Amino acid sequence: MKKIAKFLILVLIVCTFGACSKNSTATQSTNSADSNKKITVTDGMKRKVELSKPAEKVLTNYPIAVQILCALNKQDNILGADGNAIKNPLTFSPKAGSSKTAASNDINVEQVIAAKPDLVIIYKKNKEIVPKLEKSNIKVFVISAENLDELKSTVKDLGILTGKEKKSEEFMDYYTKKLDSISNKLKAVDQKNKPKVYMAGGSMYSTPGKNMFQNSLIELAGGINVAGSLSSNKWCDISAEQLIGWNPDIIVLTQYSGVKPQDVLNNAALKDVNAVKNKKVYLIPSKISAWDMPCPQTMLGIMWLTIKANPEVFKDTNITKEVDDFYQQFYGTTYTKLGGTLD
Description:
Blueprint: E1 26-27, E2 39-42, E3 48-51, E4 58-60, H1 63-71, E5 78-80, H2 83-87, H3 109-115, E6 119-123, H4 130-135, E7 140-143, H5 148-161, H6 165-186, E8 196-200, E9 206-208, H7 213-220, E10 224-225, E11 235-237, H8 240-246, E12 250-253, H9 261-265, H10 274-277, E13 281-283, H11 298-309, H12 319-331
Parallel strand pairs: 4-5, 4-6, 6-7, 8-10, 8-12, 12-13
Antiparallel strand pairs: 1-2, 2-3, 9-11
Pfam families: Peripla_BP_2
Keywords: Signal
Protein name: Periplasmic binding protein
């Protein structure tokens, strides 16, 4: 994950539009908004998080949490967020005069306490701040979402904590149905014919091993991650020789890799790689938000890659319609209207 750029805007900022697992345990009453019963969930660090009522004021320094909250229709309840999320058209369009951001990557405990949030959401790498916030009776939910089950669990738990269970269930139902549909179609693909996929992360020669979220994305899309034998839970640096030895059938470039398909196709050192010879080098299309991360848009990345990996099996899939429908359902606008394009 890239470093989070900035932390808080301690004024109310609002989204431009409406609707912006197995590891989870949660209990609450049927009508949480009117209930006096405690709401209890288990977060990504296996901590019990209890609220007396659904959170109305939420602070987070984690862009993916912002995307999830917007997809749950909770954008009006976010008191502040990190600077990158604010620049993202999928999330925020700050009110006039509210565009200031703190210049630090760190979470400022005093600022958080002064804002009096009902809930603070952080990424697990910031877990050391939890005791400091809890000392001041600040409720903290820690996110750990490194696979699809954990992502769905996180959406479910945040839906419970914010009183948006119905919307979170709608999200999980969408994911389940789409994954089932993809899985059923992939049954027609001979296991021996699965394409070998190489994904470039922060650079051309940085790739995800088997413990990375992106490995799951490749497998769910019907491909084989050529770096799947690497056990690291971080991006792995490799050599050009290693890539040539793997000889992938498809090369996928992330938006943040800094590499374009033509760069790879023109790279003389890679001219004998199958993906280059057959011109199967693709850039994940979304500049709005990364489709290869554990975020609400991950399903779009899976669907897009299934078409690239198995075009004959998914030849009837209208990816533009699928993407526009998703954005409309969960963000209240379409990918096309936001200026997104698909190749």
